[in-house]
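If you are new to this repository, start here. Below is one unmodified record pulled from the training split, so you can see the exact layout before writing a loader.
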Amino acid sequence: MSESVHRPHHPLNALRAGAFAIGALLLLVAVGVLLGAPLLIPPLAASAALVHGAPRLPISQPRNLVGGHLVSALAGFAVLAVTGRSMWGAAVAGGLALVAMLIARVPHSPAAATAVIVVLQGVHPVPFLLLLALATALLVLIGWLAGRLGPEAVRYPVAR
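And here is the target side for that same chain:
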């Protein structure tokens, strides 16, 4: 294979990353439809882009992906309890999610949108958190699988 295929921005690598991201998101939509649960596609699409497009970044690693979304959801539920469903509360939740992720040492920028979704949708905590845990675990699993397939695969997660 040519040296150009080894570069992460090579079109073949971009297509491979995109295919796995699309597959992961379609699986998440299927799970959401089967469970009749709210869709979390915006933040999870951004997470999938990090896992498959920049798998070596610290914010792409499983601890940050899963932890960031769960911590952000909790921040969203705290704000929802105080403000109810509101655009103002959603804005506050997004900022507080960042604070919570930094304190917990699990920064994952797409997860701030999870806090916003919690406040805007006014979802029930238990089913939402279970679905979120399942969805983030599936993203990690598919990232791990993608990192093991093919001769040019980039290992995910990064060993520490």
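Two things worth knowing about this chain: Residues 1-6 have pLDDT under 50 and may be disordered. Residues 3-146 form one domain.
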